[in-house]
Task: structure prediction
Amino acid sequence: MKKIAPYNAKQVEENMLSYWQDNCIFERSLEQTKDGQTYSFYHGPPLANRLPHFGHSLVASIKDSIGRFQTMRGRSVERRNGWDCHGLPVEFEVEKKLGISGKKQITELGIDVFNTACRDSVFTYKKDWEDFFDRIGRWTDKKNAYATIDTSYTESVWWVFSQIYKKGLIYKGYKSMPYCPRCTTPLSNFEVNEGYKDNVTDPSVYVKFKLSQSNEYMLAWTTTPWSLPGNTALAVKPDEYYVRVALKDDEGSIETLILAEKRLENLSAETFEVLERVLGKDLVGVEYEPLFSIDNLEQNDSLYKIWPAEFVSIEDGTGVLHVAPAFGEDDLALAQEHSIPVLHTVDSGGKIKTDLGLVAFEGKFFKGADKLIIEQLTQKGAIYSAETFEHTYPFCYRCDTPLLYYAIDTWFVAVSTIKDQLQASAKDITWTPDHINTGRFGKWLEGARDWAISRNRYWGAPVPIWVNDEDDTDIIVIESIEQLRELAEGTPDLSDLHRPFIDNVVIKRDGKTYHRIEEVIDCWFESGSMPYAQKHFPFENEKQFADSFPADYISEGLDQTRLWFYVLHVISTILFEKPAYKQVLVNGMIMAADGRKLSKSLKNYPPLDDVFANEGADSLRFYLLSSTPAVSADHMRFDRDALKDVNRNLFMTLSNSVSFLSMYAEIDNWKPTSLERPVNLKNPLDIWLCERVGQTIATTTEALNKFELAKASWPVYELVDELSNWYIRRSRRRYWKSEDDNDKLDAYRTLHWSLVTICQLLAPFAPFASDYFYQHLTEDIQTAPDSVHLSLWPEVILSNEAVLDAMQVVRQLVNDGLAARARAGIKVRQPLTKATISSTIALSTDLQSIISEELNTKKIVVKKAEVASVLLDTKITQVLKNEGMARDIIRNIQQARKDAGLDVENYIDLVLVTDSSALINAIEQCEKIIKTEVLATTLNLNSEQFDYTKSTSIENAELTISLQKVNGAE
Ligand SMILES: [Zn+2]
Result:
């Protein structure tokens, strides 16, 4: 073994990256395990049209660590990368880049031009992602990456779609959907969930609807005044009491309002008189006058009447519901039940329509019309009160536009009808942390709703539905390219299935003509189809698919519980009645040190490159993976100081330990010959360390098997600390004492094996440093693999608890004894006569001598007792005092040796000069100890001095140390 250069994270990591690449270490790790049992991992495909950010370092570290661990266990772990390429986020970016917005401008530009721009943009940051993966040490199989734009991928998505259709679970519905007017498409309920914002200020308006037959008003409450022109009905709760109340206005005229009795509190402080109390059902059928006159509105018997509805809330508002069927889920359902007209006063771009005679606000964006509408109604005297209030409101999670509910034809997966199956198959999933199973995920399944899967957009997998021109109930759902080719008119080019090409493919069957519907598929449907589509299943790779499904393991953030985890589960349950994954690890979220979200503008976190350049990727990975909140779906606070501590206390300490071993091994020309755990050890420290390492192997392995990464990684940190601050510190002199060669050999073997094993245990968490040290430690061993990542995970050996317990007692006694010394004000270098030890267990003489050395006492008296304790004899004789001074002198000489640039193994001639008779007495009494400890061949007092001379002060007395290296001496 040779000395090792001082550890520098950045240098080590960059060198290791080149080494891995030059020596194909990743590829060899795959090759080496290819016949092993498959360990299936699904990569959640990121979008490559955006840069990776700080938060990605956590999920990248988690994914990589499990993959490395299983590979070291001999499992075949495919690390296939994938890219999410479709959908609104891509379109949104391209619209911005092209300076266009909305459907009209896209159609004017041409769908082909638009989609080509989308295709060109999807891999904008692919290289940045790949570089990020490399730099953080995440191994991915870049060459075999899949992309959701691949024709083969889309073909599998079509197949999935057709399977769901065959099971009768796809239908078209005219529903009021959460809708983004900027993106002009409905969103699924789980997408809506991603975009709620708190504390949004909106109007809170009480509106008076005058009854046709009397001078009375229904009082309704709304937070969406823009929807008032679309009002076509009012609704009341049939079994609730409503009251007619008389109010006096400022001019003294009396006005009668009708509202729910329980909502009377909402009338402002004016005095009012309750005239009458009626049930809601008694109001049903009463007609009222519309607030606005709408041009070209067909007369209809159901228009502008009061209807009964159980969903009317009595908890807020007035108990009188303003019904605008185009803009509300319940509203539309009520309208469909009673044939009430659906009045679309807002166009698909979110603007008030221009052909309805709403001149004062036509063309305005819906939210922008609120104020004008309130003004106009106030002039008409139709407003009881208008205020603003704060509430939670949904925005488009892609483009940040306020959403509205909008009645539109949409294709759905009837998820609500298969809730039982979803819950049944979810029983086979193990969650980390466990509570998400019945909590966030379980609750979400319980309330599962039908999934809107069509998007009125351009850049996505086209919905494979062709509709008969004559009869829109007659549809063909295509399941393969081959099938489409057979049915299509002519010989269309099907190499690119995107719009607009696919729109031109016409099917003729039995004399009927079918055209494709315009919509594309929700990109979440594509992500949820990745287990099949990444393998182009069922068109090829049947065996690989069977081996890899369901995944043994997936991991993403908590937000994916209702996104990717959910869609994977829905699709796999429908197709195969089983979950898509067996184990899911939900990572937490990195917050800034102050607990706030990471924010570019607040600059409350360091740039990744800065962390890589200073503390290094290993420290970052280990810091994140050993944080319990980060690896169990909670919030962790990113603290740069804690990261620095990991760098110093783990990696620098490990480096110092490797460096210690290497330095003495080089001096002694000692070379390791085996990677086996040493046997027949005699020294209790060696026996203890091997047991301690064995114990850590067991803990770390068990925790990794349970995906408990913090519990798996932290014990390695503690082991490194104990190895350095207990084992090496206690064993230091064994490496240079040449009196007992067997003991020294055991010390080498023990420390070497322990460090090698620690590197292996660290490999999943800190892939660079672990490999760097491993390679250094094993370079003399011919049979050792070229990388720690090609080595086999250390075997779990049951540890000898008694050995560990005994050392625990020893360390406890030592700590107590040192505390007693500190209390008595006696420094550790001052020897004492004896310590009386009470121990709960029998301590061997070897262990007793460790205590005696640590406490620096001449003798140890041991008593057996129920409680462990230490009693020190603090009487200091002159002989002991001299020894204490000699220890001080030795420490100063050692420092002088270092300052003179001597190597630890160099022998010296030594001269000590002092006037102090106390020091002279101490030196004379302890001459032998001093010479041995500082490797002095000669020791003279007050004689001629050497080149290197240094003065110091001991016990208030002046001492001059002078030394020179003895040439040729051993
Ligand atoms: Zn949007």
Remarks:
- The pocket of zinc ion is lined by residues 180, 182-183, 396, 398-399, 401 (CB under 6 Å).
- The first strand starts at residue 80 and ends at 83.
